[in-house]
Design brief:
This protein is α/β, with parallel strands linked by helices. It has helices spanning about 5-15, 20-30, 35-45, 70, 75-90, 100-115, 125-130, 155-165, 190-200, 240-250; strands at about 20, 50, 55-60, 95-100, 120-125, 140, 145-150, 155, 170-175, 175-180, 185, 200-210, 220-225, 230, 250-255. The model has no long low-confidence stretch (mean pLDDT about 90).
Length: about 260
């Protein structure tokens, strides 16, 4: 096993168990404890973990961007619920912008499984471009932009410039946190700018966000609640949120 593969597995274990122990990891991967310490040191330096006695614990900072392959495998059931709800709203012939979130990948898969016809998909997600590469009778447009390591995304001013050229039926974005006062936020300025542009280019502005993001605030603002028309999530939100959505004229969709 390559060192990067081992570190990714350790990071996944951190996400699940919240802490890891050097001696246990040494036995699992049949390597020396010194090798495991170097792995953990790399995860600490990258901001994913915090050193603890005999091992490490997960860094809970909302502004830490996990590698895409780790994010894609978190809360899979919740993301599938969201993707199903989004797919229910899409009609043949729709034009849709999808951001580079892991949730959007599940949405792209759900749209294919539903057999939607004649869709136009505009995305800055490299993962979605690969997923939809052989989609028949769909038009798939890449935004272009600068590749962002670890996120499988194309971002930046060139991405915004392309997005502003189009007016679509629906834009679907996700975020790192949604808060009644702070609005919906992300950990990265470039991603936030591109998501904001997608919303401005769409008639139906959909925020697809799992329940863990409620009452969280990340580094940079994407928009305020009045900037979206629909929230689609994986669980019924608390009563205070349902009231906020009703007062703001936002449709909230969740599995019954």
């Amino acid at each position: 096993m390559l060192a990067i593969e081992r570190r990714n597995e350790i990071l996944e274990k951190l996400q699940t168990d919240r802490r890891v122990v050097v001696s246990e990891l040494s036995q699992i991967y049949d390597v020396s404890e010194e090798t495991i310490r170097r792995d953990l040191e790399k995860l600490v330096n990258d901001g994913y973990a915090i050193k603890s006695y005999g091992g490490a614990v997960i860094n809970e900072n909302i502004n830490i961007d996990l590698p895409f392959n780790i994010r894609k495998n978190r809360n899979i059931v919740g993301k599938q619920h969201i993707a199903s709800q989004v797919a229910d709203r899409v009609r043949d012939g729709d034009s849709i912008m999808l951001d580079a979130s892991s949730t959007a990948v599940y949405i792209a898969k759900a749209l294919q499984e539903r057999g939607r016809k004649n869709l136009t998909i505009i995305t800055n997600s490299i993962e979605i471009l690969i997923e939809l590469f052989d989609a028949q009778d769909w038009t798939i447009l890449s935004t272009g932009g600068v590749s962002r390591e670890g996120s499988f995304a194309l971002v930046g001013p060139q991405t915004d410039k392309m997005l502003k050229n189009y007016h679509v039926d629906k834009a679907v974005i996700s975020c790192k946190g949604i808060d009644i006062t702070a609005g919906f936020t992300d950990s990265d300025d470039l991603h936030a700018n591109n998501k904001r542009t997608m919303l401005e280019s769409a008639r139906d502005k959909i925020l697809a966000v799992d329940s863990s993001k409620f009452d969280k605030v990340a580094f940079t603002e994407i928009g305020n609640l009045e900037d979206i028309t629909t929230v689609i999530t994986d669980e019924k939100p608390e009563a205070k949120w349902l009231q906020v959505f009703e007062d703001s004229g936002i449709e909230c969709v969740y599995p019954e």
